[in-house]
Amino acid sequence: MASASLQFFAFILALFGVFGDITATLLPNWKVNADVGSNIITAITQMQGLWMDCTWYSTGMFSCNLKYSVLSLPVYIQAARTTMVLSCILSAFGICITAVGMKCTKLGGDTDSKNHACFAGGVCFILAGIFGLVPTSWYTREIIANFLDQTIPESSKHEPGGAVYTGFISAGFLLIAGVIFCTSCFNKQPGAGIYPPPQHHFPSTEQGSNAGYDLKDYV
């Protein structure tokens, strides 16, 4: 019962991780640059994401431009696109597989089949968490390196946006869920295989019947 409850908790974490992973992939605010002019009316916020660049004006106007050319993008953005999409796909597969292998569901057949399905889903979550953690870390490193570079003007420097933090948290949820699923599938009963079953030795009837006689009486 405790293992089933733990798996259900991990499944909830995985759901949050999947939704956060998809949200982080689609959000345009991976890095943000706030540029404020002399008048508050001229304040604008420039955001750059994996698929589009957006500009928000303080007057309420909002415009976005899609990044159509893939080869013109920096290497870390191309890698972030690929790994984030793989993370979303693997996490979605993990949700489907663990839904069959969980102990609180009636799908998946016998216990061994459910355990193997649950373990496979946990591996998918771990891989999805790694694929989600790599691009967010790389993207953050590039932002910090450009921010600390003295040769880059202040107007071209950016800070990490909300999508990066969402990606970090989602990757953490997926990793935790994957570890829980992998470790909770093959729990054995405590003491099984450690203490051998007790063996009861009963005295033989012949030994009991001959115990009161001496063999020399028959010679």
From TrEMBL:
GO terms, molecular function: structural molecule activity
Any one annotated GO CC term: bicellular tight junction
Predominant place of localization: other
Signal sequence interval, chain numbering: 1-20
Subcellular location: Cell junction, Tight junction; Cell membrane
TM helices/strands, residue ranges: 84-105, 117-139, 163-186
Keywords assigned: Cell junction, Cell membrane, Membrane, Signal, Tight junction, Transmembrane, Transmembrane helix
Cytoplasm found in the keyword field: no
Record's bilayer topology term: Multi-pass membrane protein
Family of the protein in this entry: Belongs to the claudin family.
Functional description taken from the UniProt entry: Claudins function as major constituents of the tight junction complexes that regulate the permeability of epithelia.
Stated name of the protein: Claudin
Organism: Pampusana beccarii (Western bronze ground-dove)
